[in-house]
Give the backbone structure.
Amino acid sequence: MSLFLITGGLGYIGSHTCVSLMSHGNDVLVVDSLVNSKKSNLKKIKKAVEFSKKGRAGKLFFYEGDLRDQVLLDLIFEKQIVLNQPIEAVIHFAGLKSVEESVSEPLKYWEVNINSTLNLLSTMKKFNCSTLVFSSSATIYRPLKDQKLFEDSFKYPINPYGNTKLTIERILEDVFASNKDFWKIINLRYFNPVGAHSSGILGEDQKGRAINLFPVLEDVVNGKLDKVLIFGNDWPTEDGTCIRDFIHIMDLSEAHFAALKFLKKNDPQFNSINIGTGKGCSVLEIIKIYSKINKIPIPYEFAKRRKGDAPYLVADNRLAIKLLEWKPLNNIEDICIDSFRFLRSKFK
Ligand code: NAD
């Protein structure tokens, strides 16, 4: 029975990944400060695992705490050694993720994201834990006009959030270089994670104002907003709106399980891997699909382009498919159906 430490495991991607790992029979230990998530997700994770497990499900353990607290991290690793169930690997989700906020509060983003990671790495080294999967992002790339991004594409983040992600990747590269016979590290570079668990129990339920497309769609459905604003209809794309690579949250979660499996059976290494579907869908297209498939009107309006947006952000995902033996199983329709199911479940 493996035990994985999931930092930020009560957040959107972390909670769904806990469901994947536990459904595959692994125990997970979550550390989360709850700065952007709710403790009630613990119950939801367990219920979603009940819904989707095939055999014996793993257990869920939780520590409320901040990764910047080195004493806490040391204590968690030490306790697991005493209990004779050491932490086998870590998935590092914890961090701040709002591009908008990072522009107005860069110091906060550098302080939280970098110090959390440095502490985690020091503790892992101290307790001989060598396997790490890090949540990186497509925001580290300089977008190309109409070509897919592959792992070697030019890196050029255009906001403090993206800068912290690329810096962490570089820290990890240096750490790996310091002991290439020890560290097993994968940066997963996510494109646009969306959707919810198919049970309707778990989904994106962040604190604060909706910024991303799906939380905004939900706010329109539940009447908090009267329309979706689409930023720009004059981009060089077929319908003039931006094209993104929307990936179902459960496909993304399974990619983490695949990454851990891959690292377990292979020698120490450092790898960066895109996680996307490899298919683009425009913002207008997705709004229309969501509206049609869920039989619900979604009013929208075109607004001016947003600074920092790019017309086309789609992954070349061939490395993930080849190396991790993983592939996305859900399409845009599944994403829209599962998101809507989660939204309705909130009102039951
Ligand atoms: P999220 O905000 O829902 O989850 C992050 C979790 O980390 C939250 O539960 C938060 O409370 C916790 N946290 C933050 N700082 C912490 C700290 N110092 N110590 C302990 N816990 C802390 O975000 P998410 O969408 O689940 O994203 C997870 C990771 O994936 C983040 O690192 C994010 O940057 C990255 N990522 C997300 C997206 C996306 O579109 N959601 C895309 C690319 C990369």
Remarks:
- The radius of gyration is 19 Å.
- The pocket of nicotinamide-adenine-dinucleotide is lined by residues 8, 10-14, 31-37, 66-68, 93-97, 112, 116, 135, 137, 190, 193, 206 (CB under 6 Å).
- DSSP finds eleven helices and 14 strands in the chain.
- The mean pLDDT is 95.
